[in-house]
Amino acid sequence: YHNTLEADLREVDFVVTDCAAFASLHRNGGSFGWKSELEVVHIIELLSDVIEDLPVKAKEDGSKMMLHDSCYIGRHLDLFKETRAIVSAVCDPEPSEFQFNREDASCCGGAAHYHVVAPEASKRCASERLSEMAREGGKSIICGSATCDKAFKRARDANASTVLLNVVCTACGF
After folding, report:
1. Angle at the Cα of 55 (from 50 to 56), degrees rounded to 5?
2. Percent share of the chain, pLDDT over 90
3. Most C-beta atoms within 10 A of its C-beta, which of 52, 56, 139, 162?
4. Residue 17's closest CA among 72, 54, 84?
5. pLDDT tens-digit profile of 86-112?
6. In DSSP terms, which residues pair with 129 in a beta bridge?
7. DSSP state of 74
8. Rounded mean pLDDT, 142-165
9. Is the dihedral of CA 67, 131, 150, 125 positive or negative?
């Protein structure tokens, strides 16, 4: 797979993705023992570089949101600071932090294909994180990962969470 992908993209300078697992795999090789020659940039990295230049028209109300640190975005790509810089630029007030955050954040069960391999365990992880949110006073979760967003929505409902990229687009009027 990776040899074909890299051959097809050999003329490309870099790839921007919203999939942190894809970015992590191409940077670290995962357990496959290879490191990609392809430069893969996560959308949070790109946004954090340009967030000050984006036309934020109206900041989103973060008062009832809680920021979830996604496993791959946080522990694998170490984008804690970048995620918070973006959130700060598009939310007022900023969303609350979970008691267990950053490297200590609980898994939501959304990583990669965990929901396919272990659907009940995945749903249980997301439900537990949503219960933490409720205990800590939040009404919804903002997360940098679409897979986390889907895990929360599978566990509860469509209003349980939102992806940071959607919040950026809304705040900028896109």
Report:
1. 100
2. 62
3. 162
4. 72
5. 999 999 999 999 999 999 999 898 877
6. none
7. I
8. 91
9. positive
